[in-house]
Structures are given as C-alpha cells and as structure tokens.
Amino acid sequence: MATAAAETKSLTSRKAWQALGNHFREIRDAHLRNLFSADPGRGERLTAEAVGLFLDYSKNRVTDETLRLLVQLAEESGLKERTEAMFTGQKINITENRAVLHVALRAPRGATIEVDGENVVPKVHEVLDRMADFANRVRSGAWKGQTGKRIRNVVNIGIGGSDLGPVMAYEALKHYSQRDLTFRFVSNVDSTDFAEAVVDLDAEETLFVVSSKTFTTLETMTNANSAREWLLSKLTDEAAIAKHFVAVSTNAKEVSKFGIDTANMFGFWDWVGGRYSMDSAIGLSTMLAIGPENFRALLDGFHAMDEHFRTAPFEKNLPVLLGLLTVWYTDFFGAETEAVLPYEQYLKRFPAYLQQLTMESNGKYITLNGEHVDYATSPIYWGEPGTNGQHSFYQLIHQGTRLIPCDFIAFNKSLNPLGRHHDMLIANVFAQAEALAFGKTAEQVKAEGTAEWLVPHRVFEGNRPSNMLVAEELTPDILGKLVALYEHSVFTQGVIWNINSFDQWGVELGKQLAQRIVPELEDAQEPSLGHDSSTNNLIRRYRKAKG
Ligand code: F6P
Q1: Which residues are known to be catalytic?
Q2: Which positions, given as ranges, span the membrane (predicted)?
C-alpha cells in the first residue's frame, strides 16, 4: 500500500539516524554536571513554553547538536506531511483503512474536516449538544428514574479506552464535579468489580452508561448484562431500562439488540480510536460529572495543543520534543521504560491512562511496510503520583542499574491549598529532578564525614534524565492540553518508527482464545482439550475445582 511512510527511507538508513548513532558514541558519557557547568544558560535555554505548559528539558542527556539531529530525523521521517495527513482526514490507519481524526472531536464549531468528502465537524457538535442536553437534565434532576426519583449515581461500564479515559478524567477533574452525584467505573470482567461498584447504590437512583465503541467487547457486555439483571431484580419493570441505561457506541445495531433505545445512544465514529476517545461521547460520564461548560473547556484545551502541534516549528514544539526525546533514549541509550510522575494527587490515574495510549499505540514490531523493525519501539510507561513513589520505587531510579527517563508534572497552584503542603510538594519534585541529574559525588559524601566503607553506598552517580512540565493549575483546559501533548508525542514516535500507531491487532489473539476456552470451562461434558498440555491441565484443574 502506498503511504507517505513507504516513500521515505527505512529508519536506520536515514542520514540523521546514522549521524545520531555517531553523535551518541561521542556524548554517551557526557555528564549533566559538566553540560550544565560548561553552559550557564542551559537551564533557561533548553525550555519551551506554549498554550500554558512550560517544559524544562535541560536535564536531558542532549546537546544542541543532539537536538538538531533529532529535529532533522523528524524532518527526514516526514513528520510534517504525516501530521497534515492525519489532520486532513487521510486514511493513515492503513490496516483498518480508517482516518484518524480525534483532532476533529475538539475542532471548533464551523471548522471543516472531511472524511470521504463529508465534513465531520457538524456531526461532532450535534452529538456534543445532545450530550450537553442530557447531562444538564441529569445534573439538574429533571431526568428521573423509573420510580420518579432523581439520578444520584452514575456507573460507567466500559474497558480500555472506554474506561481509562473516563476514569482518569473523572479523578483528574473531581474538583470541578457535582458533588451530590456519585460516580463509579466498572471495567473488569471479574465480578468483584461490578459487585463492589453497586453494593451501596439504590437502583432507583442509578444510571448506567454502557460505553463501548464496538458494543461487542466481552467484558463490557458481560458487565452490562449483569447491570440489567441487577436493575430488573430491584425495579422489575422492563420499561426501567430506558430510564436507567444509556449507551455510548459506534454500533447502533448492537445497542438496540441489547435493549437500549437508540434515542438514548450517543454516537461516535470509526475514525476515533478507543484510546483516543475520551473527548468523544465516551466522555459522557466526564460531562455528567463536570458539566457541559467544563467539558467544552477540556475540548478547547485539546484543540489549543492540536494547533500548537500542527503549526509550531519542531524546535519549539512540545509534543515533538517529548516524542523525539523518547526515541533518543529508547533507540540510542537502550532505555526500556519511561516513568510519568505527576506531582498532583488528582492525576493519580494519569499514568494508567497513558499506558494504554502509549503502549497500545506504539507497542509494535511491524512497520507500515509490513517489515520487522530492526530497532526498539515503545518503551514501557509506568508511574505513580508524587511524593508516594519517592518512598517506594525511586530508589531504583536513583541508584539502580537501569536508565529510566522521567517526566515530572507539576502545578504552581494547588486546588486545595493547605498550610505549607504545596511548597513541600513542589520542593520535592524540583529536588528529585535535581538529585537525578546531578547526584552526589564521593567527595561530597566524604566531606559530610561519612565513614569510608559507607561512601560507595551513599554516592549518587546522577546523570539520570528528566523532563519537568509545569502548568499554573489543574483545570479542564490544562487536562485537555496534557492529554493532547502525549497523544501527539506518541504520534511523533510512531512516525519516526514508521509503525501504525492506530491499530491494536496484538490484543486479538488472547480474546479469540478466551472465547474458545469459555465453553470448555462451562460445558457439562468433558471438552476435547485440544490445547497444549499446560493449558489443558489448567482447564482440567479448574473444572475439577468448580465441581
Ligand atoms: O482490547 C483492546 C480494545 O480494543 C481497546 O483498543 C479499546 O479501547 C477497548 O478494547 C474497548 O473496546 P470497546 O470500546 O469497543 O468496548
């Protein structure tokens, strides 16, 4: 298939890639201590600021030459052209023959973005308006349950992109949420997830939002069926379904088969990937929590970052810089993971959200041309909010044997100011980045009067890279900007690696095999057990235990 990527040279034969290889050999041992002392302006120079986000990338193991070559790599990889292809609705998701247009979900009313000759922006706003109308009715109490009581509880049922975005956004924006509404999120097919979510809820006051792009996902459909049984066991009348269930999906046929009136369905389109869908109707639970106005501010934030990504020169482009640094550490330093460490309690689910965004997008070993890559692709993303992580795994980042680039995220203001807490929080995040970069030498340790034998244990080599992202305060608008920042960083990485960041074939095999095993666990008669001996044994043991 002809693609922009197919026309560019293979990654490892690009000039900039080869130059980066040579350059890496020259600077691999350069210490951040020396880079900083040789260049007093570095900490101010290697920064970028746009749309209310400040990025300090000076504590990375880069020189001006590294950055020049990385930008050249982006150019040689056709990043500009590929970005335009995405924003103009070309079918860059070649394995599914789909456009990739999450950017259309936050395009302002009146914008034009065409897919197959049709402007999709009016459809986006039509759904947003219906969502707003519904959200207002639920939030005001005008939408009543079957017995006339107002809705007090909202349970989102979904998994993957139909869960992680909603739950992350709910937690991130809790400060802005309507506090007399309770929100729960059910994703796992493990019945405990559902049971615990509804244990203290009154069915008469509960609304289920069944969120599934395909409306066929095993976990979501199993949970949705259990939710229906739970509701009907309390309210008995089938008509209650219309008052207590709404659906968010691209699949109207399956929605009505399930028994939900399509009048209570909020749609989106096949050009929205699951992990890129939190700003589509999949964000209905978010809108119910924070209200339509805040939801629109979230979308405006996304859009501002989209525009920055599309138009800013690569040297000053936040997502491009982040994406290129990831490529630098992954492919040249051999870093296997990247930590995302938000110093903001409300962002506690942000690392989990990013795991799907980054790893489902770029965890691939096949190029757009169908060849096996001969370089590493997505690192493993992980993280926890600060300062908790400091008292758990930071030891390994500081003194372990692996290089773990870190993204710190901090805010100038707390949404819950309390005494000296925020100064302490921020002192910690700045201190961590400083300690990682500069460490502590044996001389410094000795000068503190440390016993000779203890010195090696107390030395910090330093030279551990990090980015520091700082914004004023966590608002819906800033959350949109942060998410879009990582979306476009992931896109930048995918373009360099020449992979399709928008399919997820790697999740299919496990799903298929599970479908095959389900009846083997449930059937009365002994199954054929045509698996390998380990799987057969596990099935037999489970059947026996089940009785
Ligand atoms: O299994 C992976 C996946 O397809 C994700 O990409 C997606 O976000 C999730 O499942 C849920 O899919 P759906 O929204 O169709 O239920």
Answers
A1: 360, 391, 511
A2: none
| Residue 248: half-sphere exposure toward Cβ, Cα within 13 Å | 32
> Of ligand 1's atoms, which has the minimum distance to the CA of residue 277?
8
Burial label, 75 (beta-carbon count in 10 A; 0-12, 13-18, 19+)? middle
From ligand 1's centre to the CA of 96, what distance in Å?
14
Helix residue spans in 236-267 (DSSP H):
240-244, 252-258
Complex ipTM tops 0.95: yes
Strands 53-56 and 466-471: antiparallel
What is the Å distance from ligand 1's center to 258 Cα? Answer: 18
**What are the residues whose beta carbons fall under 8 Å from the beta carbon of 360, sequence distance 6 or more?**
160, 275, 504, 506, 507
Q: Which atom of ligand 1 is nearest to the CA of 162?
A: 14
Decide: pTM greater than 0.80: yes
CA atoms within 13 A on the CB side of 529: 13
pLDDT in tens, 356-380: 999 999 999 999 999 999 999 999 9
Whose Cα sits closest to atom 16 in ligand 1? 212
Instruction: Check whether the bond before 337 is cis (ω within 30° of 0).
Output: no
